[in-house]
């Protein structure tokens, strides 16, 4: 400060102190994120070069004093302010030739929203940084680039139903009295971001065309490049793996699967142990005792009942065991014959990994899935279909419901709004993949970023967002999860009673086997 202060009068020095400990910067220094700056420049060209070099390291919303060390004409000063304005640097006072303080007020009516520079020289107020940012923009334009995003953004040029994101932006524009101008011929940046994992194309478009806002969708943990700044989220959506409805399983294949392998093993082991024990008690051959135990197991008539106490007790206990086993098997069999069986539910990533389900998701989701165990991640990637990146992001739900042979990553909120009977779908609800946010992205240094965030908070607290989402979902095309082929009523066929014939065949085969053994 001492270096600069030696050239200033006491009154002007008082003005400098209004800058609140500014950072003094020459054209050879990188400014950094300070609140206020004093830029000492030798020429307009050097100023322009410095701004180009520092544009991503510069707090453009701070109070900035530019000191030119030689005298410039009013046209030169207007050119300087226009250059600064193109970098979103608006809160500026130029100290020209160490004699005059010059500034301008972009949002006053005579300046036409920054399109015309009317200079103000040596104003009465010492703090010329006041009133540079108006509370209301007075109808000044804010340009917005957009892409179609399901029912969030249908078309901003549709008055009745533009989409809930457009409704939010229009409301924010009304709060700050801005003329929201939606652009045409926008780059297809949203689809490209899904495939590349970044918003390079949006950054390039906003920088080249000097666009103020862009609507972006990204995960909460995503940080945009230094060229962009983002508001607080307008909307949040949790995304999960969503799978097709569980399919029915043929009951005929479960006749022997009613008991697990362990239960069958215990049953046969019990039969053998009982036969051996009965041989020991009765002193008859093992073949006879095995046949006798099979008779008991099949609930055949037993002519020889033991008379001694211990054999009788053992006999009664075995009969009790056989009765319980028979009752349990009968109840399970009744359940199989009367109730449809479905594939097991999948609620966790571990269960999904163990299933045979195929998956479709963009390669950009890899970084979210990598948070799981490496083995789980490897299996999930092996389940991913090879054409996943060619999936149309806006027809993803339609594509999913048309085929119903793979799982996708979707937000539960969106699927419930666009699918009539979404309750039929399976959601891996125990493991969230990530949270998607819809935000407004601005070029670095946008003047009204903080005002936008204040408006977003007001809109969220008002409850209007829920209303807009509901209104947008009412008018969109609804999808339906198709019924499975065996859900619809059908005439009774031989296939429907196949299980009964199988049981009859099993009984006849057993009877024939016993008859042969008796002979």
From TrEMBL:
Keywords: Cell membrane, Glycoprotein, Membrane, Receptor, Transmembrane, Transmembrane helix. Coiled coil: none annotated. InterPro entries: Insect_Ionotropic_Sensory_Rcpt, Iontro_rcpt_C. It comes from the Eukaryota. Pfam families: Lig_chan (PF00060). It is a multi-pass membrane protein. The chain crosses the membrane at residues 255-278, 284-301, 313-330, 497-517. GO terms for cellular component: plasma membrane. GO terms for molecular function: ligand-gated monoatomic ion channel activity. Residues 283-508 form the Ionotropic glutamate receptor C-terminal domain. It is found in: Cell membrane. GO terms for biological process: detection of stimulus involved in sensory perception. Belongs to the glutamate-gated ion channel (TC 1.A.10.1) family. This is Ionotropic glutamate receptor C-terminal domain-containing protein.
